[in-house]
Amino acid sequence: MKSPYLSKDGLIKKLVEIELYPNKLIEGAFEEAYNTHFLQRRDDGTPYLEQHIYPVTLSVVEFLKDIKKMEVRKDVVAAALLHDTLEDSLSIYDEEFIEAFGHGVYNLVKPLSKPKKRGYSPKRIGFREELRLDIKKVNEWPYISKVIKIHDRINNLSCCSITITKELRKKYIKQLIETKILYLPVSKEISRHLYDELSKKTEEFSEFLKNAGYVTRQ
Question: Whole-model pTM?
Answer without folding.
Answer: 0.93
